[in-house]
Design goal:
Layout (H helix, E strand, L loop, with lengths): L1 H17 L2 E8 L10 E6 L5 E6 L5 E6 L4 E7 L6 E6 L5 E2 L2 E2 L11 H5 L2 E4 L2 E5 L11 H5 L5 E3 L5 E3 L2 E8 L2 E2 L5 H7 L5 E8 L17 E7 L6 E11 L3 E11 L3 E10 L8 H7 L12 E4 L15 E14 L4 E25 L6 E29 L2 E28 L2 E15 L2 E14 L2 E14 L2 E6 L15 H4 L6 E25 L2 E23 L5 E3 L7 E20 L2 E18 L2 E21 L2 E14 L9 E4 L2 E4 L7 E14 L4 E13 L2 E8 L2 E8 L3 E15 L3 E22 L2 E22 L6 E13 L2 E16 L3 E14 L5 E13 L6 E8 L6 E8 L2 E8 L4 E9 L1
Parallel strand pairs: 1-7, 1-8, 13-16, 20-35, 37-41, 40-43
Antiparallel strand pairs: 1-4, 2-3, 2-5, 5-6, 9-10, 10-15, 11-12, 12-13, 13-14, 15-16, 17-18, 17-52, 18-19, 19-21, 21-22, 22-23, 22-51, 23-24, 24-25, 24-26, 25-28, 26-27, 27-29, 28-29, 29-30, 30-31, 30-32, 32-33, 33-34, 34-35, 35-38, 36-37, 38-39, 39-42, 40-41, 42-43, 43-44, 44-45, 45-46, 46-47, ...
Length: 916
């Protein structure tokens, strides 16, 4: 019944707003030329409320949806024009009103209308008045973002504006937590936010604006409310839940013209994850990096088993703290400091069914059921110190230093039961495994960037980056059944010929990997004219890596058996050097911008192992191209083309076998060559402030020649593999389209389509009577998904967000469908009560077999805060339906996996929050 009443209320409300009349017209200057992006606002003279606002189109058009038979004050502003205000009284029918503005205005910063307007524009900056979009239930900055036209908060917490990922987040002009949008959007209280400035064509270095292709770069600046521009603010919240659950989450912020201090602490065991592994690497890689665009990619394969958590674990504990300080020593010199510490414990429990195919077929050779429990502990620390010295408009010097340290331990308990078919005979077997792994990796990065404008036509840029990493992964799998015993293989490097023939197998594997990498680059920009720039680049990348590994077999009498065969040991030295020269010419023709160029590289690589050095010395010409078509100020098409060399690091070059899992041993290949990657991408973006419509889409096509693949052979669930180049060409085609529109002031609809096709070649092996057969397969994957959502933004009525996603996947002879309808309800009422309810239904179906799996997730909360009170009370329930597990299915060329993951139980938490 409540749902029916809510639905009726929404329909009635929709109809009432549909009865508005439309006031439209053209804003023009004295010469009758239309004024694009003028601000228009309608203020109800009786209620003094703003009933409508608009931004004019390139033809000067505006539309306001207003109440009939009502007196309004129409206020206008435009940069360079005098403010104007006229009075009109609407009738029962649509009206037309053209308005002429006169020149002689002042800068927008001093205009009162801009402070009142929900949206205003100044050059490349769009300013949103946060209070104009708030409906009362917002608690964090991300809640405000979700209400703004053109904004999207992604599943990983990152923010997109106009279809572009936000590069950096500032608060009152100072970077917030290294500019990380996730930390900012999830922790800055919404009531502190006054304005949200979208800075398009963003470049932190003013001298470089216009020289580089940064037209699509976007940053956000959060302007705090008056009284909070030199003030401590924040909140402290703490709560208790059932099953000994708890949360303690203080946040403290200080801002003054010279100094900002941001501090966040989060201690909980109810599944709130402060930072993921991806977040740690993203934040600690925050230095300017244009060297990576040189056309060369050296993939550093970190042996990092990372942070986990969230609600995909059975147990979780997260202790997180971070501190960020920005201080302007003078107008020319600014220092920044950032540090974060995370201590997590996660227990994951999975039950999986796995099928392994016979090579070159989809016939099942092995069926496995595995029950697994993993206890993970991770202590992670990152810190950064940065200095920015800008002597004048022509000189800037930046220096940043990062340090990261982890201490990780995993204990994995697995029970595997499997059956294999060979020559028509079925063999059943099982294994119980306890695996322990640990490591304490450390890394140290530093970067120096110098920008010098010699004269109006000449600009120099020097970039130097140094990266040092030290990794020491240790792995100790203990198998109750030795899978390599009683083998008849004649290969002296077969595990059965290497390990002592005992019923059990206990391995201790140690690895030590060190990386030293230095990148240096000098850019010279010469401005030939106002519409053409020549860029010459000289650079060098030099990397040196060492890799040492050894294996011990712990026998059943607890003695040690060192494995001394070369095939199971590694002592590798690898050096990589790339010297390159690049030339680019950027020029503008009308609405078109072109920036073609090329780079010439001289590569020298050398790896030494088993006293057998292997070297590569060759040159490569790599072209690239950037083009942009500005159809309008907020509508453009861009095209990017580039050819890149992709190299593998020492982890792919080792010749000695290592255990990558208890049932998998693999090695690299000292003679691996690079892959050649050619990519094309076409992007379209349109943001219309006239009707608050955002459209963006992209299409990309990539080919990879001479790809590096794993050649793999299975014997039941156990595999051996190595790395090699295939004389083949992988292909990938993908595209997406996104649409968002805010209308009638209270509604926002979004929709999206994404699709991809790829064809990758793989190498599978099969051992028959001691002989190895190889099969090269080209595997095609097709994925396409669709999503649609409708959200309301009422201030006096319940707000509802309805969403639906469906995804189709096809590979070989298998197809899968995933459907996820969602419902979210927010209702702010009685001047202090706020209800939030979130429900999602997930259905996964294997269309080939007809097997379907469903699971539901529901969360809810009730907040109360009395007007002008500093205390807020909250009851929240996570996993309200007490769903026990989530289901996930995957498919690959080698087989399929059907996984059931136990998730956190229902937590009902009472939270008390104090607003500072």
């Amino acid at each position: 019944m409540k749902n029916i009443l809510l639905f009726i209320a929404l329909i009635v409300t929709s109809i009432s707003y549909g009865q508005n009349i439309r006031l439209e017209g053209v804003i023009q200057d004295l010469g009758k030329s239309p004024l694009e992006m003028a601000n228009v606002m309608a203020v109800n003279q009786a209620t003094k409320a703003m009933d409508g606002y608009a931004i004019t189109t390139d033809k000067g058009k505006y539309i306001l949806n207003l109440k009939p038979n009502t007196a309004y004050s129409i206020k206008l502003s435009y940069l360079g024009m005098q403010n104007k205000e006229i009075t009109i009284t609407t009738q029962s029918e649509n009206m037309e009103q053209n308005i002429t503005m006169e020149s002689g205005g002042i800068e927008l910063d001093g205009v009162e209308i801009v402070r009142e307007m929900p949206v205003s524009i100044k050059g490349d900056t769009i300013v949103y008045n946060a209070d104009s979009f708030k409906t009362g239930e917002e608690r964090k900055l991300e809640d405000v973002f979700k209400k703004l036209p053109g904004f999207e908060v992604m599943a990983d917490g990152q923010v997109q504006v106009e279809g572009k990922k936000v590069a950096k987040l500032f608060v009152n002009g100072k970077p917030f937590m290294e500019g990380d949008t996730k930390l900012g959007s999830k922790n800055i209280p919404s009531d502190a936010v006054d304005k949200i400035q979208v800075m398009r064509n963003f470049n932190e270095v003013s001298q470089m604006k216009g020289l580089e292709n940064n037209n699509d770069d976007i940053a956000l600046n959060i302007k705090l409310k008056k009284g909070k521009n030199k003030f401590w603010f924040g909140d402290v919240s703490g709560g208790l839940a059932n099953d000994k659950g708890y949360i303690f989450n203080p946040k403290l912020f200080y801002y003054s013209p010279k100094t900002s201090i941001n501090s966040i602490v989060n201690l909980n065991n109810i599944g709130e994850v402060s930072l993921t592994s991806a977040d740690f690497f993203r934040i600690s890689g925050g230095a300017r990096n244009t060297i990576g665009k040189s056309g060369t990619t050296l993939n550093l394969n970190r042996n990092f088993f990372g942070l986990s958590g969230g609600d995909n674990v059975a147990k979780a504990s997260d202790k997180f703290g971070t501190l960020n300080v920005n201080h302007s020593i003078s107008k020319k010199w600014t220092l920044t400091g950032f540090a974060a510490y995370s201590s997590t414990f996660n227990q994951s429990i999975t039950n999986s069914d796995r099928g392994i195919f016979e090579p070159n077929t989809t016939n099942i050779a092995t069926l496995e059921n595995r029950k697994n429990r993993t206890d993970s502990r991770n202590n992670a620390f990152i810190s950064k110190l940065g200095s920015k010295y800008k002597a004048n408009d022509n000189f800037q010097l930046d220096y940043d230093v990062f340090f990261r340290k982890n201490d990780q331990q995993d204990i994995d308990n697995s029970q595997s039961n499997f059956s294999s078919t060979s020559n028509g005979t079925v063999f059943n077997s099982s294994n119980t495994v306890v695996a322990f792994q640990k490591q304490a990796p450390a890394s140290f990065n530093q970067s120096l960037n110098l920008f010098y404008t010699q004269n109006p036509k000449s600009t120099w840029v020097i970039e130097v980056q140094h990266q040092y990493e030290d990794e020491d992964p240790f792995y100790n799998p203990q198998l109750s059944v030795n899978p390599y015993q009683n083998s008849t293989s004649q290969n002296p490097n077969d595990p059965s010929a290497v390990f002592v023939n005992e019923n059990t197998l206990n391995i201790e594997q140690s690895r030590f990997v060190k990386t030293n990498k230095v990148d240096a680059k000098v850019d010279y920009f010469y401005q030939i004219s106002n519409k053409s720039i020549l860029n010459v680049t000289l650079g060098n990348t030099n990397a040196f890596q060492t890799y040492d590994s050894s294996i011990l077999q712990i026998l059943q009498n607890n003695s040690s058996n060192p494995v001394e065969q070369e095939a199971y040991n590694n002592k590798v030295k690898y050096s990589f050097n790339d010297v390159f020269l690049g030339v680019h010419y950027k020029f503008i023709k009308g609405k078109f911008t072109f920036n073609p160029g090329f780079s010439v590289h001289q590569y020298n690589t050398n790896n030494q192992q088993f006293n057998n050095p292997f070297q590569l010395n060759f040159s490569r010409f790599l072209p690239d191209m950037f083009a942009r078509w500005d159809l309008k100020k907020s509508e453009n098409v861009t095209y990017n083309f580039n050819v890149a060399n992709r190299f593998n690091d020492v982890n792919s070059l080792i010749e000695g076998y290592i255990f990558t899992n208890f049932n998998s041993i693999s090695r690299g290949n000292a003679q691996l060559e690079n892959s050649l990657v050619t990519s094309h991408r076409l992007n379209y973006s349109k943001y219309n402030l006239y009707n608050f419509t955002t459209i963006f889409g992209s299409v990309g096509y990539t080919t990879t020649k001479n790809p590096v693949v794993n050649g793999i052979a299975f014997q039941s669930i156990y595999s051996t593999s190595d790395r090699l180049n295939l004389d083949a060409e992988n292909e990938s085609l993908n595209g997406n389209l996104f649409y968002s529109k805010s209308f009638q002031k209270y509604y926002k609809v979004t929709g999206g389509i994404n699709a991809s096709w790829n064809k990758n070649f793989v190498l599978n092996r099969r051992i028959v009577s001691g002989n190895t057969q190889e099969f090269i397969q080209g595997i095609e994957n097709v994925n396409h998904g669709y999503n649609l959502a409708l959200a309301t933004q009422f201030k006096k009525y319940p707000n509802i967000d309805l969403g639906y996603r469906i995804n189709f996947s096809e590979q070989a002879a298998n197809s899968f469908t995933t459907q996820t309808p969602t419902v979210k309800l927010n209702y702010y009422f009685l001047n202090g009560l706020n209800i939030n309810w979130d429900y999602s239904f997930n259905r996964f179906k294997n269309e080939t077999s007809g097997i379907a799996n469903n699971f539901e997730i529901m969360t809810a909360s009730l907040n109360y805060i009395k007007k002008d009170s500093k205390f807020e009370y909250r009851i929240q329930a996570n996993n309200l339906l007490n769903t026990k597990s989530r289901l996930n299915n995957t498919f690959s060329v080698n087989g399929f996996n059907a996984n059931e993951t136990i998730i956190l139980p229902r937590f009902v938490t009472f939270i008390l929050k104090y607003n500072i």
